[in-house]
Amino acid sequence: MRLLQLSLAAVLCLSVTSAQAQTDTPPLDYARTIRESEMVFVPYMGMDRGPVFYTQYVQIPTDSVATVAGMRRLFVNLHPTAHTQDLYNGFITRHGITDARLLPLPSAGSCQPSAGIADLLKGMPTNYRPAVVGGNYPLVCGLSVHFFPADEAMVRAHIAANPVITLRASVPLCATNSPLLNVPAINQRLVTDGVLQTTPNLGVGGNSWNVLFESAKLAQLSPSLFVTSDPQVGWETYIKSFTLNLTAQTATMSPAAASNSAAICTPTPLVINFG
Amino acid sequence: MTRWVWVLAGLMGWTACACSGDDPDEPGQTPEQRRQQVQQCIVTRVPPPAGSTEARWSVSGYALVSAYRSCQAKPGDATSEDFRDVLRGLAEPEEDPSRVKLTQPTGSAP
Question: Do A216 and B66 touch (CB under 8 A)?
């Protein structure tokens, strides 16, 4: 019993640590973007860890299993071709990458059943028509497909001949030559002026109106700190590094954001489509 | 002799101003009147979108600060404390830290 309690505590501790690590990541370092085959890797600032995005997918059905009311069910999952063609492991090894294993959905797009599979199975009961299910890295999403046993061959033939999932995603990446904002230097000015204070977890924070006013005034009086020819552009990157508590009227910046430069983004979205 | 008279007069004037506490920008203007005047000035510089009749609109925080600073009689009047006071009733923060929601001040047309 004691061993079970210790094991559960260890699992919970690791879960919390992992969650905290995932939520306080540095900004992405677009200058070190690596594109190879169907993979795009963008590391976090100061790390070899970061998300890997895939631009090509293939749909692969699972075996079917019996389910309720005499029906059967299979899943059709979207797999990155970089994995099915065994390109991923070499890419990771060659570049010394630690994969953050992030999915672009649902934040950057969605999967939907294709019109073809929806029409093929429109006679199924409402709750048993094709439905999208969430992904599990590196599978970006899947489709749950119910059918009657006599129709399995027809369903599989349709899946083999047609895309049954429509994936549309646009990952908001930035150009590799996006200028960098020296966030720590700006923070230091505002800490010196008493506008920002160091938080217990080594981020920075302050009254949100004070931060808004003093940072904008600093950009207007010392535009070179904010890099861009129009300092408002650099200022917007800076102020968006804060999280607001609207009730408490506070603005806080995480330790990872406070200790790294941030890209003043020239948008170059990564479009990912299937079907 | 004349030069020292001017220096003395200037020192006396500066002292009078420094000792007058909350010195309004205009003679007889109360702090509340000044606050409302600055609010009106701000909304002329960051007005609602053209053609809008909405009483509330979103503006860039950068533009708001620029408008506030340009609406001061003296640069030294632009402080974060005064900024917060002037925005009372005029502005609310948005989820986007770079944006602020303005509400038309009472007594002014949209």
Answer: yes
User: Which pair of tokens denotes residue A198?
Assistant: 């160091």
pTM greater than the 0.80 cutoff: no
User: For A231, phi and psi rounded to 5 degrees?
Assistant: -60, -20
Structure tokens at A191: 């800490």
Dist. CA A105–CA B35, nearest whole Å: 48
User: Is residue A66 in a domain?
Assistant: yes
| Cβ separation A220–B69 shorter than 8 A | yes
CB contact under 8 A, A212 and B100: yes
Min Cα separation B1/chain A (Å): 41
Contacting residues of A for B86, CB less than 8 Å apart: none
At B32-74, the pLDDT tens digits run 999 999 999 999 999 999 988 888 999 999 999 999 999 998 8
Among B30, B47, B50, B55, smallest CA distance to B107 is for: B55
Residues A40 and A165 occupy one common structural domain: yes
> How many angstroms away from the CA of A172 is the closest CA of chain B?
17
The C-alpha torsion from A240 through A242 and A248 to A249, rounded to 10°, is: -50
Are A196 and A211 a contacting pair, CB within 8 Å?
A: yes
Looking at the predicted complex, does its ipTM rise above 0.85?
no
Cα-based angle A259, A239, B41 (whole degrees, multiple of 5)? 150
Distance from C-alpha of A164 to C-alpha of A114, rounded to nearest angstrom: 5
- Are A195 and A201 spatial neighbours (Cβ–Cβ below 8 Å)? no
Q: Are residues A153 and A244 in the same domain?
A: no
Determine the structural domain holding residue A212 and report its residue range.
180-263
Closest Cα of chain A to B102: distance in Å?
A: 14
For residue range A84-104, what is the model confidence (pLDDT) as tens digits? 999 999 999 999 999 999 999
Nearest by CB to residue B80, choosing from A209, A236, A239, is A209
